[in-house]
Amino acid sequence: MIASKDWGPCSCNCGKVILKDAEFVIVEGAMYISGHENRRETKRMALPIRETPILRGKDARKFADNARTAESRPVPKKVYDRAQKTYSEMKKRETSERDNPPV
């Protein structure tokens, strides 16, 4: 297939991007640059999450104090506005991609 628009990264995690007019294939719902579909078995799995250590004594008190002050500290308006803008852009992109799937 030929891409009708820029689609984003190849699913084989090679770092290349599927750009407009590039050849690509869809395998099991994933988009690959043509020729990369045979790399799909080589995807790296996430590492297992290690057990969370139990805090005791002075470390536990320090952690609890930091958690309390973080909860009561307001987020700066600039940071909040940037997060809201990013969220809105992601929602628009999600809607756009859902409404215009690849052919």
Task: Provide a compact summary of the structure.
By secondary structure, the chain is an alpha+beta fold.
Plain-language structure description:
There is one protein chain. The strands form two sheets. This protein has a two-stranded antiparallel sheet with strand order 1-2. Strands 3-4 form a two-stranded antiparallel sheet. 38% of the residues lie in helices and 12% in strands. It has 103 residues and is of the alpha+beta class. The chain has helices at 57-72, 77-99; strands at residues 8-9, 17-18, 24-27, 30-33. A hairpin with a 2-residue loop joins strand 3 and strand 4 (30-33). It has one domain. It has two helices and four strands.
What is the element layout, followed by pairings?
Elements: E1 8-9, E2 17-18, E3 24-27, E4 30-33, H1 57-72, H2 77-99
Antiparallel strand pairs: 1-2, 3-4
Structural class: alpha+beta
Counting DSSP E segments of at least 2 residues, the number of strands comes to 4
The pLDDT mean sits at: 81
Rounded to the nearest angstrom, the distance between the terminal CA atoms is: 8 Å
What keyword list fits this structure?
103 residues; two-stranded antiparallel ribbon; 38% helix; elongated
